[in-house]
Amino acid sequence: MKKTRKTAIGLLSFLLVVAFFSSCSNEQQIKQSIERFNQSMPKETGGGITIIQLVMDDSSLEYQCTLDEEQQPMSVLKENATEYRNGVIQNLYQNLSNPAFREIIEFLVETDRSLSYSIKGKEDTHRVNISPGELQRMLNGEVPNTVTPSLDKSKDTTESDSASA
Known about the structure:
Number of strands: 6
Order of helices and strands: HHEEEHHHEEHE
Distance between the termini: 30 Å
Strand content: 15-25%
Strand order of the largest sheet: 1-2-3-4-5-6
Structural class: alpha+beta
Largest sheet: 6 strands, mixed
Low-confidence stretches: 149-165
């Protein structure tokens, strides 16, 4: 479990590298910054997770990652999905004091986008989604001590699915 939390924290700390967004005042500038960010990929974050690219669409800003299952099996990530998600949320909240990072989160809320992590293993993909509402609550200073994944798949915050062959 400690390895899973460490992986979540490693992945989130890497978010601060994205602080270059702070100089972006509009969506086009952010898209250009994402292109520059992606030129420096791939980037290992620890726990066998490597960020391949950052993708923004109409609904989310997504970190697309791969998992080296020799370092950490997908089963460990799945078994500790709630703890992993909690680590991500706690780290997000702690980093809100960084003005550049806060601006990223504000942009996501203003444009109704979630912050997502897609971690692809050999056969499965694990997803963590932090909704715009959750991001807004964080901006308001509200973070629950324990977060549990939603059972409503339309608002799923932690999910795993089989990768298509």
